[in-house]
Each structure stands twice: as C-alpha cells, then as structure tokens.
Write a structure and sequence with these properties.
The protein is mostly helical. The protein has two domains: about 5-85, Winged helix-like DNA-binding domain superfamily/Winged helix DNA-binding domain (Arc Repressor Mutant, subunit A, Orthogonal Bundle); about 95-180, no CATH class. Helix content is about 70%, strand content about 10%. The protein has eight helices and three strands; from the N terminus they run H-E-H-H-E-E-H-H-H-H-H. A three-stranded antiparallel beta sheet has the order 1-3-2. A hairpin with an 8-residue loop joins strand 2 and strand 3. Helix 2 (about 20-30) packs across helix 3, helix 5 runs antiparallel to helix 6 and helix 6 (about 115-135) runs antiparallel to helix 7.
Length: about 180
C-alpha cells in the first residue's frame, strides 16, 4: 500500500495534523504493524515538496508551539484521483517464490513434495486463523480478511496443481540440467 496516497486520501476528506493522520492510518491499516511516526512526516515532507499538500500553521492559544495542519492541494487531488482510477498490477511474488522453492527442492533433494505439503499446511493454518478472526470483525476488517483468504485459496489451488505435476516438472528440470 502506498503511504503517500493513503495520506492524500485522508487529507481529501479534511485537513489534519501528522499525528492524527498516523492514528487514522493505524486505525484502518496498521492493526498488525502500525506505521512509524517518522514515515508519516517524511511522506508529508515529500508531498509538500511535490506541491501535493501544503502546510497551515495553527497558532492557537494553547501556550505550546505552533502546530502544523496539512491540506491537500489541487495537484494532490488530481494525483490521488489518477491513482484511484488506475488498476493495480497483479502481484505474482508469492507464487514465484513458491515455484522457486519447489524447483530448488527438486534440485537439492529430488522431490518437492515435502516442501509443498508443508506450505499447504501453513496456508491452511493461516486460513483457519483468519476465519476465526473474521467471526468477530467489523465489515472493514472482514473485507480485508476475505481478500487474504481468497489469495490463500488461490495459492492452495496452485500448490495442488503443482503437486499433481511434480513428476513432469522434475523430468523437465533434470532434462535442462543435463543440457546445460
């Protein structure tokens, strides 16, 4: 997830302080790993440099130092809208990693079944955990959990397909190995 667009999205609702943006970010997206305060302020500094946000100094009579509110600019609004309208590229990293491990297991031990079985069990365990967590979740969290569950399910389908093709994969790998 892009922090800069998240902050722009929050600021499109209303101007706000860096600390309040951090709390909002953590409330929506940082349940497992809160964002660092420094990341919020460094991102805001880059957005300011790029004319996507501007600072508004709050000179309230609180007796403390002036506080800085951030406000999205027209350029920031346009950038946010363009980002929202552009689809994300599908990400095959996990599948690529599982494939690499399967090939390396074949090269090392002659069999990827134990690795794939372990990976399948880890996926099933994670699905159980997420399903239990989903029961007591609000709608926002349910949608995020459903997204994770569907990705795990797709990975499991790939694991099953790969297991069914291990003999052929091993033959191809060994054939390539002898030709190189």
């Amino acid at each position: 997830m892009s922090v800069q667009y998240t902050l722009l999205g929050f600021l499109a609702e209303e101007s706000n302080y860096g600390y309040e943006l951090k709390k909002k970010y953590d409330g929506y997206f940082g349940k497992d790993k809160p964002i660092l305060t420094g990341q919020i302020y460094s991102t805001l500094a880059r957005l300011k440099r790029d004319n996507k946000v501007k600072e508004i100094t709050d000179t309230s009579e609180s007796g403390g130092p002036d506080r800085v509110r951030y406000e999205i600019t027209d350029e920031g609004k346009q950038d946010l809208q363009a980002w929202l309208e552009s689809p994300e590229a599908p990400s095959p990293q996990l599948q690529a990693t599982m494939y690499i491990k399967a090939v390396l297991a074949i090269l090392k031990d002659g069999d990827a079944s134990p690795y794939l079985d372990n990976q399948r069990q880890a996926h099933i365990q994670r699905m159980r955990e997420l399903t239990a967590q989903r029961r007591d979740s609000n709608l926002s969290d349910m949608l995020l959990i459903d997204h994770a569950l569907y990705h795990l399910e797709a990975d499991l389908r790939w694991i099953e397909l790969t297991i069914s093709r291990l003999t052929r994969l091993k033959e191809e790998i060994l054939h390539e190995q002898t030709n190189n």
